[in-house]
């Protein structure tokens, strides 16, 4: 029985490791996960942020997020992996649970949920998949229901 992993499985593991590093607040692991090639610029878009370019700027952004977040957990759903040669694309939904600011010292604040759709691009370097780019966009909850509701309201209006 073979235990060799496919490229898609390796990419999915690298993608999971990215989120686990954020959950642990592990800046060292984060640095190991991102592409470190002077000829290739990495990029990152956190929800609501401008585009960050360059390894230093991207890693500083993650360090800032991790330092200012008491608790965060990612539940990844809708994960799709596509590999083409030494490049891979992962799309997924980040179901995020995070702790808000605590009212009292030593306590965790209220938990807040958020949905973000993400695209992560990886490059294979010396047999390892490294993050080349991350882009996260918030999902506006209930938007489809609101749009559908407006259409139903219009259908029930005058002339129906």
UniProtKB/TrEMBL annotation:
User: What segment(s) does the record annotate as region Disordered?
Assistant: 139-160
User: Which domain of life does the protein's organism represent?
Assistant: Bacteria
- SnoaL-like domain location is 11-139
Record's Pfam families?
SnoaL_3 (PF13474)
UniProt xrefs under InterPro entries: NTF2-like_dom_sf, SnoaL-like
Kindly give the Gene3D superfamilies that the UniProt entry links to this protein: 3.10.450.50
Membrane spanning stretches: none
Q: Where is the composition biased (Acidic residues)?
A: 144-160
Protein's name in the database: Nuclear transport factor 2 family protein
Which species does this protein come from?
Answer: Streptomyces gamaensis
